[in-house]
């Protein structure tokens, strides 16, 4: 996994700054992308000034954390470690969400297999099983 720093012309005169950490696919792998943007406008739903924003997308599994400010580039970068820590905590939360989802799916799978095993071993199939065993004995 690579870490890619994307900085569009650092200060192009726009009044707002955004620092974001995300995980993005790239040619069959995943990359951590750190973006520093100086821009004119544009919010993600739920973003607010000077507050760390953790994007909660599909199934609560998004890996995007950002902060926006009307303040200076220096102020934005003074919050770098704080945003990085939030990104790390978000990754831990997503791991926990995926672990819970896996445990639920595994439990459902085991229940379905158990049900199928019970059906397969029911008395309904005794004659079929007896016939299969006789065929195996005849082959030997």
Distance between the termini: 56 Å
Number of helices: 3
The whole-number mean of residue pLDDT values reads 86
Low-confidence stretches: none
- What is the overall silhouette? rod-shaped
- Taken as a percent bin, the fraction of beta residues is 25-35%
Rg calculated over all Cα atoms = 27 Å
Going by helix content, strand content and strand pairing, the class is alpha+beta
Q: How helix-rich are the residues, as a percent range?
A: 40-55%
Strand order of the largest sheet: 1-3-2-5-4
How many domains?
A: 2
Order of helical and strand elements: EEEEEHHH
* Main beta-sheet annotation: 5 strands, mixed
Instruction: Please tally the β strands and state the result.
Output: 5
């Amino acid at each position: 996994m690579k870490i890619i720093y994307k900085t569009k012309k650092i200060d192009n005169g726009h009044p707002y700054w955004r620092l974001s950490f995300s995980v993005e696919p790239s040619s069959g792998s995943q990359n951590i992308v750190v973006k520093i943007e100086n821009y004119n406008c544009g919010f993600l739903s739920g973003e607010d000034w000077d507050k760390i924003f953790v994007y909660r997308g599909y199934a609560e599994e998004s890996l995007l954390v950002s902060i926006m400010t009307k303040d200076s580039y220096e102020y934005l970068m003074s919050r770098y470690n704080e945003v990085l820590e939030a990104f790390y905590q978000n990754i831990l939360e997503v791991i926990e969400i995926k672990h819970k989802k896996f445990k639920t799916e595994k439990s459902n799978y085991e229940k379905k297999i158990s049900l199928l095993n019970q059906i397969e071993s029911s008395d309904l199939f005794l004659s079929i099983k007896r016939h299969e065993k006789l065929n195996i004995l005849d082959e030997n």
